[in-house]
Design goal:
Strand content: 5-15%
Number of strands: 10
Structural class: alpha+beta
Number of domains: 3
Low-confidence stretches: 386-443
Order of helices and strands: HHHHHHHHHHEEHHEHEEHEEHEEHE
Strand order of the largest sheet: 5-4-3-10-6-7
Number of helices: 16
Mean pLDDT: 79
Helix content: 40-55%
Distance between the termini: 92 Å
Length: 443
Amino acid sequence: MVMASDGTANGARVLEAAKALRAELAAFEPGLLRGVDCAHVADELSVTEKACAAARLVAGARAVEDGAHKEAGFADPVAWMARQGGTTSSQARQALQLARSLDAHPETKDALLSGAVSVLQAQEITKAQSELEGSEHDLLELARQGDLTRVRDEVRERRLNGTPVDDLHRRQVAARRFRHWRDGLGMICFEGALPPETGIPFVNRIERRAARLHRDAKRRGVDERFEANAADALVELSIPDGSFPKGATDLVIVCDLYAWRRGHAHESEPCHLIGGGPIPVGLAKELAEDAFVKVVLHDGKDVQRVLHPGRKLTAHLRTALDVGPVPAFSGRECIDCTRRYGLEYDHDDPVANQGPTSYANMKSRCHSCHAEKTERDRRAGLLGGRTARRAKLPGRTRVPGRAKLPGQTRVPGRAGGVRSTKTAKATKGAGPTASRDCEVDPP
């Protein structure tokens, strides 16, 4: 009972001291002190901060052991610890594991509670002691004199030297990983690990290329961070020729048709990367160069129609053309002279004039008629000139009040054609092969 009484009194004193310290810190004004005095304050507070973190950790672990976190409304002790420390669940879980292991490492526990080492340093030391027995004392001395990086470097070297090489390599290969996520700014972040035989050349190539980019930027008078140049180098080395594998969807852009034509988006007009957040319309146009484009028509609630205006014929579209017109399905014949041999597929509205590869725009012509029609298109200016140089939305989708969308059929319920005036979106996706699953436009 005396021990319990002493423990209760000590806990009360800690609470009072914590409240008094917070009050003093709230009133602290470093501008009133000399620099050397501020340095002394910073040194002492760093020790106090580490000691407070350690005390909070062991107190939290004891509360979890007794189930007190449930009284605070948390079924998961890790979630409660994360809330207490303002950390992630992963960090809270590691801290809880450290607290539970401290009794097996009394020297580390004493150093932690006295503020000599930090929680992160203690985690590295206890893990190393579990794998490399007898290393605790030396690592604690190193932690007292250095930072977390020195401790981690020493632990790594001891682990590498103390593990049989075959077993080490097996563990390295098994530990390879890559994960990615989006941060608060919408940036694509990633983290990973590679075994040395692939990781070292990978990193060396990035650093060499980044150094060249950094030197080039300095010559141009541009002051950039080296890590920004390293990010550019990573992209360049990942896609050396700037191309993407055919059939793979590497980037998907959604842009409202009116925003595309206007050059900027208004409210409720989407222009964004799927999985990446909003982007300027100008960037969408730049990224959409030589892209495979899909057009989606909707009425604000439901998708009414989907067009994939790529140049290449899909298997679905080729089959629909080969069976001939509905309802006779008598096979292909030249639309101009009715020949049934030497037929070629022809875009009625030429590709150079943004004509889509759709059922309504594809015609069968013999070689002679095809050549004559091509010459007519050339004389009409459909194979070049001002029309071909327009800011290009592949497929040249159109809306009411303008000429008909290539391959457009009327939407039931509206006499004018497309049901909604603000309906088209251009999406950059895969290469032409990605359209194989699209439906053929009705004749």
